Amino acid sequence: MPSQPKNLDWIRSVDPKNLPTDFGHRLYQCLQDLTTNDNVVAQQGNFSLDGNPTAPPQPQALNMVPHPQGVQYQIQHEGEFYQGINYEIDMTAQGQTHTFDVGSSRNGVLPVGPVTASYQVRARYPNGKSGNAVAFSQPVRGASVSQVTLLPSQGAGTTRPSQPPGFGGPYRSSNGAPPVRRTK
């Protein structure tokens, strides 16, 4: 539905040489409607109206275990955040860092082979800045086991741990209200 701010047509019809006494009030109503509509769109679409989206809160922990094809990761993220959150895992080995964009999944396998590396994770929104990194406590050697027990699911997107896909909403919070947005 298109935005229909109050008094917009009336403001267009006003002669600037003969402003009515209620012009200021009607102009204020129109601008207030435009601001309200912008804020609703920003909240529903997870946009930043000033063009500088803030990073989501950092994850609480990153767990890494060996897997036959590399390493398995588990990202614990219990913060309040909006849909569209993505994760990047940085792997540092032999003086080089490689970044894996793992999307919204908080569980998965990185096919790194038999390499010993350090790992850290960052959360970000699309087209936004990454938050602070959270590192795993020790280096892990990939592909060093023949069998593995999968780590418990942490969900994806706005779902909670062990919750099936599709049950998350437009945001995740502890009190049911949208998370408070930080500016810059």
Question: Could you walk me through the main structural features you see in this protein, from its secondary elements to its overall organization?
Answer:
By secondary structure, the chain is an alpha+beta fold. The chain folds into two domains: 8-45; 61-155, Immunoglobulin-like (Sandwich), CATH 2.60.40.10. 16% of the residues lie in helices and 28% in strands. Strands 4, 5, 7, 8 and 9 form a five-stranded antiparallel β-sheet that branches. A three-stranded antiparallel β-sheet has the order 1-2-6, with no helix packed on it. The chain has a two-stranded antiparallel ribbon with strand order 3-10. Strand 4 (86-93) and strand 5 form a beta hairpin. The longest helix is centred in the first third of the chain and has 23 residues, at 23-45. The relative contact order is 0.18. The mean pLDDT is 85.
Largest sheet: 5 strands, antiparallel
Spans of at least 5 consecutive residues whose pLDDT stays below 50 are none
**Rg, alpha carbons:** 24 Å
Broad CATH class of the largest domain: Mainly Beta
Tally of helical segments:
2
Second rung of CATH, namely the architecture of the largest domain: Sandwich
CATH superfamily of the largest domain: Immunoglobulins
Q: Percentage of helical residues?
A: 10-25%
Structure in a nutshell:
With 184 residues, this protein is an alpha+beta fold. 16% of the residues lie in helices and 28% in strands. The chain has two domains: 38 residues; 95 residues, Immunoglobulin-like, CATH 2.60.40.
